[in-house]
Amino acid sequence: MSTPATTTASVFGSVHLGYVVIETNRFTDWRRFGTDAIGMHHDALSRDLMRFRLDDQECRFLLRRGPAEDVVATGWHIDDHTAFEQIEARIRAHGVPLTVGTDEEAALRGVERLLRFPGPKGITQEIYTTPVKSAEPLRMLASGFVTGDSGMGHIALTSTRPTQIRGYFNTVFDARLTDCIDETISGVKLKIRFLRVNERHHSVAVVGTRGLPIDPVRTRVQHLNIQAANLDDVAQSYQRVHELGFGMALSVGQHTNDKELSYYARTPSGFEWEMGWNPIAIDETTWEPATHQGISIWGHLPVGQTIVDKLNQFRLGARSLARPENTVPALSGAGIADD
Prior knowledge:
By secondary structure, this protein is α+β, with helices and mostly antiparallel strands. The protein has helices spanning about 5-10, 25-40, 80-95, 105-110, 160-175, 230-245, 305-320, 330, and strands at about 15-25, 40-45, 50-55, 60-65, 70-80, 100, 115, 125-130, 155-160, 175-185, 190-195, 205-210, 225, 250-255, 260-265, 270-275, 290-295, 295-300.
């Protein structure tokens, strides 16, 4: 039986990272981190719910009270109903269940309607077409953030099955491989794959350990990224992170592949937060994937890492051997090897 046309038409370029849902019990710390350190707009909805804004969209980060201390869902803005229905059709064609979000869930996320379905590493994937815009002026320390056609930034995952995660995002969103980085950290060889769904260099980065079947990161995401509009916003937020006592994972530096200048702070939930500026945009007519050696041209040096931190990281990695990583096989299939 042939596959319906709606499942095969490409949706590349019509998909943009729109919001992230975080579950945490550390509301006080997160509010200070998001507003006073990073510089975002904050809205308190209730004792158990709060949001951060980056622009006129009502919600870019939804924080709900709970024990996970992790990202639990990512929301993807789909340009139009045609592309939305194509994605819905291909997920159904692969036998994966979809759930319609309730009106309350949609309102909390600042969208008119949403569908959700399982994603890699237990991160629920959500799609929507129409964000709700807020008439309330932004109150934030940062001068602005880059969103728009590029989406709001990117997420990075560590994985023992990186080719399957690439297969998943290719199946669902027609993601393309932008490039790879080979890096060695604490004696562990890593290959990082960068996947794009629009002009942004990458919306998903997948960090795979080479020849070592462990995941050294406790959280589902290794880091989140947002893009500052101005270099001054990066420098000033870097200073505020230090002054407010939040942990710094990597100092200011510049990446080899997307040329983004950034630093990595540690969030109250434990995963990292990259504040970046001025990454390159991809020209689809000329771009060819390449492999770079090392993540940085300069900088991005570890801050305050001790031998105890390294031992704890390997302990977490050993623990990951006992919990199989879910890549949603119906959508990831056999995976996609590097080009």
